[in-house]
Amino acid sequence: MAPLGELQGSILVLGGRASGKSAFAEQLIGAADAVYVATAEAGDAEMRARIDAHRARRGQNWTTIEEPLELTGALRAGAGAPMLVDCLTIWLANLMHQGRDLELEITYLCQALGDASFPVVLVSNDVGGGIVPENALARAFSDASGRMNAVVAAAADQVYLVTAGLPQKLK
């Protein structure tokens, strides 16, 4: 992994569910003080356990900001410490649930990413690798997620795909 001194720009880390993408993203940031932007909300006991496990793995030197919707604002408010956003997929679902303009929000995110003067690592699920979903909402989400990942990948300086805990550099 890149030591913190060499970590620059923006990095998108893609992968399937439980692929190791979050752990890889955390390794990219390293052990130094960093900001973790969590987009998930603990809606049930299982999600609370997932959040707690992620928090325990990171340790005490990370500052956690819980931001389910205003991700662009969190990026713009960054104080120079490396930032990890986990994850864009849940952020997108939150935006859809609120009826927000997805294309506009993704455009704003990419603008803020380009303006950031500190390293930013973003995690996102690759949800389009399976079969076509059977219902309209799931298809809309899968399509929106694929478009978001393509737009953010184009804006990012580096892109990785993590499969079975193994990172592969795509860009």
Question: How would you characterize the overall build of this protein?
Answer:
A hairpin with a 2-residue loop joins strand 6 (158-163) and strand 7. This protein is globular. It is α/β, with parallel strands linked by helices and 171 residues long. The protein starts with 9 loop residues before the first strand and ends with a strand. Helices cover 43% and strands 21% of the residues. It has a seven-stranded mixed beta sheet, sandwiched between helices. The chain has one domain (4-169): P-loop containing nucleotide triphosphate hydrolases (Rossmann fold, 3-Layer(aba) Sandwich), CATH 3.40.50.300.
Q: What are the salient characteristics of this protein?
A:
globular; alpha/beta
Ordered list of secondary-structure elements with their pairings:
Blueprint: E1 10-15, H1 21-29, E2 34-38, H2 45-58, E3 62-66, H3 71-76, E4 83-86, H4 88-98, H5 102-115, E5 120-125, H6 136-155, E6 158-163, E7 166-169
Parallel strand pairs: 1-5, 1-6, 2-3, 2-4, 4-5
Antiparallel strand pairs: 6-7
What's this model, at a glance?
The protein is of the alpha/beta class and 171 residues long.
